Amino acid sequence: MAEQDQLTPAQQPELEENGGTLAGSGAKTEMPTTYDPKAAEQKWYPYWMEGGFFRAGQRPEAKPYTIVIPPPNVTGMLHIGHALDFTLQDILIRTKRMQGYDTLWLPGTDHAGIATQTKVEQKLRAQNISRYDLGREKFLEQVWDWKDQYAATIHEQWAKMGLSLDYSRERFTLDEGLSKAVREVFVKLYEKGLIYRGKRIINWDPAARTALSDIEVEYKEVNGHLYHLRYPLKDGSGFITVATTRPETMLGDTAVAVHPEDERYKDMIGKTLVLPVVGREIPVIADEYVEKEFGSGAVKITPAHDPNDFEVGQRHNLPQIVVMDESGTMNSEAGPYQGQDRSECRKNIVADLKEQGVLISIEDHVHQVGHSERSGAVVEPYLSTQWFVAMQPLAEAAIQAQKDGSGVNFVPDRFEKIYLHWIENVRDWCISRQLWWGHRIPAWYSESTGEMVVARDEEEARRISGLSDLKQDEDVLDTWFSSGLWPFSTLGWPDDSEDLKRYYPTDVLVTGYDIIYFWVARMIFTALEFTGEKPFSDVLIHGLVRDAEGRKMSKSLGNGVDPLEVIEKYGADAMRFMISTGSTPGQDLRFRWEKVEQARNFANKIWNASRFALMNLEGVAFEDIDISGKLGTADRWILHRLNETSRDISRLINAYDFGETGRLLYNFIWDDLCDWYIEFAKLSLYGSDAEAKRSTQSVLAYVLDRTLRLIHPFMPYISEEIWQHLPHQGETITLAAWPQYDAALENPDAVAEMNLLMDLIRAVRNIRAEVNVPMSKKVELIVKAGSEETLAIIERNNVYISRFAGTSSFEAGLHPEAPEKVMSAVITGAELLLPLSGLIDIEQEIARLEKEVQTLNSEVERVDKKLGNPGFVAKAPAKVIEEERAKQADYSAKREKVLARIAELRG
C-alpha cells in the first residue's frame, strides 16, 4: 500500500449518516472489577453484526479501501497461522474504517480440490466405502455436506477472532459467480492459444491418482541408495556405467546420454547399448544437458518418468515408454515385472541385475524425494495427457509491470526478487486434475467422432460444434486456477458489476511467503491479462508461526496451537495483540504462551485504568468535555504524547510495522497514561480546586477515548466495552473517527517540564531503592537547580514532587545549603541531594557494610589462595583459571566500592 494519509474531517462521512447517535452519551461509571473477555466477545460481535457496521457501501462519497481475504480451505479448523494472517487484515480494515474510508473486507473460502476430496475419501474409507462405490454425483453430495460443515466452523472461528468481515459479500470458489469467471478465463485463454492439451511429464500421486501442482509436493530427506549399473555395448567393445536412485525406471530407458565434448565417449556416440534385463537396444546420444564432471559423465534417459529426460527425449525424438500405471503398479511395458508394485519391482530388479553381473555397486545416498502433501505417497514423475497453460506470454506482462514501476509493491521488498526469479523462469502450468471435486474442465468430446470443443457450457459447445453426442471432460481444474482469479472474480467479473467498478483493484493482499509463487504470482498475471490492472497495490508478506523453540508446527511434533484454545484461555484481544505486534514483515514468529499472558495483563491494565477514570467521571457528559481551558503541566504533556503517538501509529500502520506500533501503544498506555498521568491526575481529581478538577476530567475522558480508538484495531472487544461506558457519541467505536494529528496539541514546553519532573521523581525513587527505604517513609529532599527556569518549574510543581518522591521536607534553590553527608543524583538541569540522616541510621549502615567487607575479604582470600597454588594453575583448564581470575577482579572491585562507601559515611 502506498503511503496514505487518513481522510480529512471534510472527507469523512458523519457518524449520523451511519446510524451514529446524535446526542452525546454520559459516562456509565459502574464497570465490573475485572475484565471478562468471554462476556465482551459474546456481547459485542452479535451487536456489530446486527448493526451492519462492517458492510461496505454505506459511505458512497468516501474513498474505497478493499481487502479480499485469502480464502481458507474447507478442509478443517483454522490454525494459528490463519489467526496471524486474518488479524493483520482486520487491523488494517478497522483502522481504515475509522479513518473514514468505505472499507470492504470480503470473506470467502476455497474448495481446495485435492485436499478436500482426500479428507472426504478418508472419511468414507473408514466406512469401507470408496468414491467409485458411490459414483460421481453421490460422492459430490458427500463433499458438499463436508464443505457446509467446515465453512460453518470457519465462520464461528472468524467470529471468535472478532473479524470485521462483510458477510453480505461472502464468496466460495465453487459458487456460480466464480464458476462463471473460471469458465470465461479458460475459454479466452484457449482461444488465444494459451491453454492446450498435451502429453508431458507431471507430478503424479499414485495414491490419489491425480496430477499435482508443485505446491502439493513436499520434499523430504530420505536415506536411499545410488545404484551403479553397467550397460554393455551391442558390439561387445565395452560398456557405459550409469547411476540411478530408481532402478525400476530403467525399464523405460530409451537412450544413454553423454556430453558431446566428453573425450571418454567420443567413439561411442551413435553406437547401440543393450538394456540389461529387458534386452532392448538403445542408442548412445550426445546432449549438452549432461555434466561431464558429474559421476561417470553418462546418464540413462527415461523420457516418460523424468522431466529432464523428457526434454532430452524431445530433442532426440526418443520413444516415451511408460512402465507403470496410475496406481504405481508396473504395467505390460515392464515385462516380467508386470503387476508388481514399484517398490516390490525395485527389490526384484536389483536382485536380477546383481545376478546378471551388471550391478557394480550400491552406495548409501541421502536425497530429497517428493511426497504428496495430501496422501503422503511418493510422487512419481509421470508422462500423462493433461491440460496446460502456456506461461511465458502471461509472465512477460507481469515482469514488465514490475520493471516499469507499475507493478505490485512487495513488503518487505526483498520478496520482489523471489517473485521475479520464479516468474522469469516459469514453466508451463499443468492445470488438470484427475478428481471429481472442483471446476470441471469446460471441454466436450464427441463420442462418435472424438472431436473436441471448448466452450462456456454444453449449450454453447453444441452450437459451436453442431454435434449432439457430447461428453464433458472428466477432469477438474487445479484449485490455484480458480483462486488465481480471486481478487476480481469475487467482485463480479466477468460482469461489469458495481462492486468491481468501485472496489477493484484492491489495496493490499496479506499472505505468507510460502505461496508467493503458487498464488500471488498467478493472481498478478491473470489480473493483468483479464482486467488490465494489477489486482492489489501491495502484498504484505508475513512469516510462519513457529513454536517457542523455532520449530515448524506439525501434527507429528504435536506442537500446533489452536487459536480457539488461546482465546478460551486468555481472550481474543490478548491473542490478537500478541500475534500481531510480535510479527515483523517477512519474518517468522515464535508463539510463546507467556507472551499471550503479558498481552492479557496489558488488557487488564487498560481495564483497571479505565475503571479509575470512570469512577472520577461521574456526571460528565460528552458535551462537557473541553480541553481548551486552563490545563496543568501533566494535562498538556499527556495531550502532546497522545497527539505524537497518534501520528506515529498512523504512519506505522501504513508502513505495516505492527511490531513497532504495538511497542508504542504499550509504552504510551502502560507508562505515560497509567503510571504517570493518572497518578498525577489524582491530585486534581481529589483536590479542592473545582476548575482544575473539571479540566483534568475533560483531559482524562478525551485521552482515554482516543487511546481506546488507537487500540481498537488490535483489541476490538475491550476497547468497545470500555468506550461504551465513557462519555461518547455514536453507536460503536468501530465507526468512531480515528485520532488525527493536531498541531495545536503540540507542547514541547510541557514535555520538557514533565520530563524534568519524571527524571527527578525516578532519581529519588532509585536512591530509595538503593538504600532500601520504602515509599511509606518520608525523606528530605534538596534540589540544586541549574537555572532560574528549572527552579521555576520545580517550585511550580512542588506538590507533585512532594507527593511522588515521598518527601517530608523539600527545598529548592540555585545554591541551597546542604549537610555534608548526603546521597546525590544528577539529572538534566538539576542536582538532587538527600541528607543521609533522613534516609538511614549511619552507624547501623556502617556496621552492615563492615560485615559485607568481611564476606568479600573471605572470597578474595579464597580465590587468591587457589590462584596462588602452582598445582591448580598447572593442571586446571585455561577456561577455569580465567573464570577464577574474573571472580578475583570482581570481588576486589566490590570490596573497594564498599570501603569507599564506609569512608564516605564516616566523613
TrEMBL record:
ATP binds at K555. Residues 635-782 form the Methionyl/Valyl/Leucyl/Isoleucyl-tRNA synthetase anticodon-binding domain. Residues 1-34 are annotated as: Disordered. Keywords: Aminoacyl-tRNA synthetase, ATP-binding, Coiled coil, Cytoplasm, Ligase, Nucleotide-binding, Protein biosynthesis. Residues 839-866 form a coiled coil. Its main location: cytoplasm. It comes from the Bacteria. It catalyses: tRNA(Val) + L-valine + ATP = L-valyl-tRNA(Val) + AMP + diphosphate. It is an enzyme of class 6 (ligase). Residues 1-11 have a biased composition (Polar residues). The C-terminal coiled-coil domain is crucial for aminoacylation activity. PANTHER family: VALINE--TRNA LIGASE, CHLOROPLASTIC_MITOCHONDRIAL 2, VALYL-TRNA SYNTHETASES. Monomer. Belongs to the class-I aminoacyl-tRNA synthetase family. ValS type 1 subfamily. This is Valine--tRNA ligase. The lineage of its organism: Bacteria, Bacillati, Bacillota, Bacilli, Bacillales. The gene is valS.
